[in-house]
Each structure stands twice: as C-alpha cells, then as structure tokens.
Design a protein that fits this description.
The chain is an alpha+beta fold. The chain has a single domain, classed as Alpha-Beta Plaits, CATH 3.30.70.1700. It is built from three helices and five strands. It has a five-stranded mixed sheet with strand order 1-2-3-5-4, covered by helices on one side. A hairpin with a 2-residue loop joins strand 2 and strand 3 (66-80). The chain is elongated.
Length: 156
C-alpha cells in the first residue's frame, strides 16, 4: 500500500461515477484563466471536472512493529450551472453518487486498510464527507462547486 496506489484507486472510483468529467489527481493551477478553465472542460466543452490532493497526513504505532498512516484527501468538484435545466438537483445527486462509489469499496481495492478511520482527524467519520456545496464563479462561468474530504488509513 502506498499513496500513489491510493491515488490511482481514488481515480478509478471517480471514473466509475456517472456524469464524471475531467479528473485531476493533483491541484491544478494556471495563470491564464482560459487555459485553467480548459483543464476542467469535458468532451462537450462544458465545465465538468474535479481535482483532488492530500491535505494532511500523520502516523501512529498501531501494533508492536506495525505503523499506520492516515491521509486526508481533499476533493473539489466543478460543474457548469444552468438554472433553467435545474442542474443544482443533478449536481446534488452526483455528489451523493461520488460518496456511494467510495462506500462500495472501503479499502479502495486493497490499496488501503479503510476509509472509515478509527483514529486521526476524521476519527469516527465514514467515507466521503461533504464540507460545502455552493454556487461559485469559476473564471467567468457560474458553476456548482463542492468540496469534500476522505480519510484513508494505510499500513506503512
């Protein structure tokens, strides 16, 4: 088990969610707004994407000779907003589907011990935690935005 394996399994889980757009397994930046927006456009030229990266980690002695490490992964999802098409409802359902994708595989295909930590900063929480769902301007485009966290525990 390693962070690169965990990152890849997260990418696979996200790719399996219906309606998922572009996936970036690191936080993207660009000084040029049109270029930055292009990083999140899907095949239909709509803003529809996500990025995720590790925002915290820590280690403990779990047993005599075995250490465990936690990683908090932060996700940011963006999708173009179209009020007349009630895209807010679809986006809410989409975020629930993302959470379900992780619930279906709490060891991320064996890449980690669990996504249901019993220690660390997210102790007692289960699976994907949704911290914010709101509307934001993404460059010049009005979008739905969600920020979520997932804590994975691995043996090191």
């Amino acid at each position: 088990m390693s962070l690169p394996e965990i990152r890849e399994r997260i990418r696979v889980a996200l790719a399996g969610v219906s309606g998922m757009g572009r996936i970036h397994d690191y936080e993207r930046f660009a000084a040029d707004w049109p270029k930055y927006l292009g990083l999140f456009k899907d095949s239909e030229d709509r803003i529809n994407g996500c990025m995720f990266h590790r925002t915290a980690s820590g280690k403990r002695q779990a047993t005599l000779g075995e250490k465990e490490k936690f990683h908090v992964i932060t996700f940011r999802f963006f999708r173009g907003l179209q009020d007349d098409q009630a895209t807010g409802v679809d986006f809410d359902d989409f975020i629930d589907d993302v959470g379900s994708a992780f619930d279906d595989d709490p060891s991320l295909g064996g890449a980690c011990l669990t996504i249901d930590p019993d220690w660390g900063p997210m102790s007692g929480l289960t699976g994907l935690q949704v911290d914010a769902i709101e509307n934001r301007r993404f460059g010049t485009v009005l979008c739905h935005y969600a920020e979520c966290r997932l804590c994975v525990i691995e043996t090191v």
